[in-house]
Amino acid sequence: MKKLIIVVVVLAVGYGAFYEWQKYQAQQRIAKAPKRQTTATLEERDIEFAVQAAGDIGPADQVSVRPEINGRIDQLPVDIGDTVKRGDALFTLNDSDLQKERAQRLTEIEGAKLQVKKAERNYERSKQLFASKLVSQEVFDDAKTDFDLSSNSLEKAEKSLGIIEEQLTKTKILAPFDCTVLTRPVSIGQAVSGSGGFNSGTEVMTIANLNDMIISAHINQADVTRLKPKQHVDIEIDSVPGLKMTGTIERIAPQATIKNNLKGFDARIAIKDIDIRARPGMTANLSIPVISEKNVLAAPIAAVFTEKGERFAYVKKDQSFERRIIQIGVSDLNFVEVTEGLTVGEVVSLEPPDSFEEKGKPAGDKKPGTRKSKPVKAASAK
């Protein structure tokens, strides 16, 4: 029994010592922790604010090349990555069947022309005989009808030839502009369907003009009102360290869309002086300068408060703080320009004085009716 009591006493003493040791360690951590800054000294500084966004690089002009007619690939002189000049052949279709049809239509036209000449001679002879009252009205009308029918047959044959010849021109597909072949999913000998058929035809290749590149970005709805066309854009490429380019905003969509669960506006940025290391599909980080002011009186955003439409700051005077009405200008994410009410070198509070004067006191020690003022929002300007 005595041993049990000793064990219990030892455990109790050990637990108490361990508890006191933990408490001591916690106090030491609190004592060593850096104290949160509660005041700031006003100074002149540069204020710059830029809208940040990300987008994907892509060609300004990209075309899915599909034949207009059905056929079989006969020649395919280009491959993925090849550069092609405007007017050069991208591919050709086998035209042997069309050439046969063309020859047949030419033969039909020659026969139709002979029929027209024969019908015309009969018609002219009947016209003379009918004028001399040597043939009946019926014979004359039949001759005229035969002539009209033969003329129609000739016209129909000529139109059929025109259709065949137009199809022949569509068997050779030429590059519409200087381009690079991005994809080519078909091979020589493969049958392809025309764009007027099922599923808009077979895609033979995709081509793009890589000399003119753009970035498609999604701009947050909170930032879009600060942007406008022809605005300068700084560009960095994630996958190529150190690669920087510039661009300009070409257009901003008038209607918002949702992308990655964020509502925003699609923007198109044209890249200037494209680096050959920048390729379609790469991710680009965009920085669009919006505000830039040099050597202005700046205060931390946390030092500016607003209440009932008025902006003010708590300025240190002797051992206390006085509330002073101020006017602000431009701001970035951390600082705001103060145009009236403060001067360089003054010390301002970063939180309402009552919030740190009352620290350490029980909640019941606070005076009734005490209310903290709200800090001004970041990146605002009056």
Structure description:
Mean pLDDT is 85; it is low at 356-372 and 376-382. This protein starts with a helix and ends in a 7-residue tail after the last strand. It is 27% helix and 36% strand. Helix 2 runs antiparallel to helix 3. With 382 residues, the protein is α+β, with helices and mostly antiparallel strands. The strands form five sheets. It has a six-stranded antiparallel beta barrel with strand order 2-11-15-13-12-16. The chain has a four-stranded antiparallel sheet with strand order 3-10-8-5, with no helix packed on it. Strands 7-6-4-9 form a four-stranded antiparallel sheet, with no helix packed on it. The protein is built from four helices and 23 strands. The protein has four domains: 39-47 and 293-375, conserved putative lor/sdh protein from methanococcus maripaludis s2 fold (Beta Barrel); 51-60 and 212-291, Efflux pump adaptor protein, beta barrel domain (Elongation Factor Tu (Ef-tu), domain 3), CATH 2.40.30.170; 64-94 and 171-211, OB fold (Dihydrolipoamide Acetyltransferase, E2P) (Beta Barrel), CATH 2.40.50.100; 95-169, Helix Hairpins.
